[in-house]
Amino acid sequence: MVSTPMIKKVFPILALCVFSATLGIGIISPLLPIYIDEMGATGIGLGIIIASYAVSNSVSVPIVGRLSDRKGRKVFLASGLLLYTAIAVGYIFATNVVHLSLVRFFMGFAGAMIIPVAIAYLGDLSPPGEEGKWMGWANAFFFSGFGFGPSIGGIITDNFSMTTAFLTLIGLNLFAFLVALFFLPEVKQRKVGEQDEGPRLSYREMSKSNMMRGLFSFRFVQSLGRAGIATFLPIFAAAIGLSTSTIGILLTINILSVTIFSPFGGRMADRLNRRTLTITTSLIFTALLVAVPLTNNFWQLLLVLLFQGISSAVAMPASTALSVEEGRKFGMGSTMSVFFLAQAVGMAIGPVISGVINDNTSINWVFYFAGIMGIIGTALFAWFSQGYQPEIEFSQNSEYRL
User: Could you tell me the pTM of the whole model?
Assistant: First the structure.
C-alpha cells in the first residue's frame, strides 16, 4: 500500500500540472460557443462541434485506462498534455464548422490521457478510508483551473482577441506537459484483488458489479442532460443581456464554488454514507438545473449557479470515492476509464439532443431536459447501488488536512 506521506509528496505536482491544463481549457470554455455561433452554426451544428470531442474521447478512454494499468500513468498523462498542446493550435486556423469539429475530435483522443489517468493516479495513492478526502482535494485543485479560466478568457478576449485566448490555452498546456515530464514520478500501481499476483479482471466481469452499473448509469444519464448546459448556458446568458466578461464571471463563480467546497465534500464522503450523499446532492443539483430558465438577470443566475456548484462539490467526491473502492477490485485505470466513458458518451450525445431541442422548441427546454435526465440518472444509481456497504468503517475523529 502507498503511504500517506507519498501521496502528500506527489499530489502538489500532479495538481499543478493538471491545474495548468484545466486553466487553459477553462479560458476558452465561455468563448467557444460564441466563436462557433459567429461562424453561423445552427443549434445542431453547435451540438455536433461540442460533441465531437466526446465521441473520440469515448473510444479512447477504455483503451487508455487499461493500458495505464499495465504501463504506468505518467507516460499517458505527459503524452496527453503534449498532444493537447499541439492540436490546440488548430483553433487559431479553423475557419468553419468542419475545421472546428476536427480539432475537437482529435483533442478528445488527447483528453482521454489527462483527467481520467490523473484521477486513477490519485486512486492508486489514496489510503482506504481517505478516498473522499483526496478526491475532494483533487476536485478543488483541478476545477480551480476551470473556475479561473472563464473570467480570464473573457477578459483576454474583450481586451485583446480570441486568438490571444487560444494562444494562452496552448502555452498553459505546454507548461503542464513540462511539469509532468520533469517532476511527476511514476508510482507503482496497486495490484488488483486481495493478493499481489491476482489476475486482472476484465471489463465483462466489471459489468457484473452492481455498483459499477449504478455509477455508469448515473454518470451517463446525468452527462446526457448536463452536456447541453455547457453549450447553451453562455447563449442563454447572452440572451438575457449579459456580456462576455459577465458570462465568464458567472461560470467562474460556479466552478470556484466547486473548488472551495470540494474539500468539505470530501470530508463528508469519508464520514457519511457515500451512496446517500450522491443521491441527495444530485437531486438538489437537478432541481437547480430546472431553475435556470426562471432567472432573468445576473443576480438570479448567479445564485442558482452558486448553489449548483456547492451541490456538485459534495456529490462528485462521494461518487468518485465509490469508484476508487471499485478500482481496487478491477484496476484503477480501467475503473476510472469506465467512469469517464459514461461521461464522455453522455457528452457526445447530449449536445446534439440539446441542439435539436433548442432548434425545435426553445432554449428553456434544454434545461428542462437536463433536469429530467438528472432525475432518471439518480434513480438508476439508487436502484443499482442498493445494499452498498463501505470497505471499512470510517472514524469520526480522522484528520482531513492535506
Answer: 0.77
